[in-house]
Amino acid sequence: MIVKALKKGHSLQTEEGRELLGPDASKGERTRVRILDEAAALAAEEGLGGVTLGPLAERLGMSKSGMFAHFKSKDVLQVEVVQRAADHFEAVCITPLLGEPDKSKRLALFLKNWLDWIDHPPFGSENGSCPILGAYFEFDNAPGQVREAAASHLGVLQDLLRRLSRVAKPEADTQAMAIAVCGLALSYRINARLLRDPNARTDTLRAFEALLKNPPLKGVA
């Protein structure tokens, strides 16, 4: 098991998205991380909507009251799972961009990292998918804290895409570029995972190269 990124507090994060706690972590911290690990794995397998306090407590061999001591409601738990996935997404897909000295290449590198993320879902569930990507669809029309958390993450992601596009293609309309690249990644998820298309990655990267050659231009309808 390889440690990928240092986390806040007393823990390290493995490449599967699970956390390793240092010797100074409290019992409460260890329990909380254990709950989030299991909740994130469950969300990857069954969707974020399937993460509820009662069944999760039973899965962990905990009392429901013990679960409530850490998470006061189902919504609070689901929001924390979204944040956990977002933190891991940043560590795996965004932080490595800093290692590319040519900033104009970072947009392409980010898309590659994102496709890798889709190919190898986090939290050790090869049969599952990313909880936060799933939340985009599960909660797109469900008002509440979870929808707000998913929308906030997507907003941050699109802002990153606009900034990367501005450097990669200065002449382009960065908002249109952000929408196009985001659309490529989400369509790849559908084609690769739902349709099991063996050519999905190749076709997605070809579409991205075509986008770079002929980007949407500023002020052009």
What report would you give on this structure?
The protein has 221 residues and is mainly α. The protein has a single domain (3-213), classed as Tetracycline Repressor, domain 2 (Orthogonal Bundle). The chain has helices spanning 27-46, 53-60, 64-68, 74-94, 106-119, 131-138, 145-168, 174-194, 200-213; strands spanning 3-6, 11-14, 19-21. The radius of gyration is 19 Å and the shape is elongated.
Write the layout of secondary structure elements.
Blueprint: E1 3-6, E2 11-14, E3 19-21, H1 27-46, H2 53-60, H3 64-68, H4 74-94, H5 106-119, H6 131-138, H7 145-168, H8 174-194, H9 200-213
Antiparallel strand pairs: 1-2, 2-3
Helix pairs in contact: 1-2, 1-4, 4-5, 4-7, 5-8, 6-7, 7-8, 8-9
Mean pLDDT: 85
Q: State the fourth-level CATH superfamily.
A: Tetracycline Repressor, domain 2
CATH architecture: Orthogonal Bundle
Structural class: mainly alpha
What does the radius of gyration come to? 19 Å
C-alpha termini separation: 50 Å
Which bin fits the share of residues in helices?
55-70%
Looking across the biggest beta sheet, what order are the strands in? 1-2-3
Q: Which sequence of SSEs, written as H and E, runs from N to C?
A: EEEHHHHHHHHH
- For the secondary structure, the number of strands is 3
CATH fold annotation = Tetracycline Repressor, domain 2
Q: Profile the largest sheet.
A: 3 strands, antiparallel
- The overall number of domains is 1
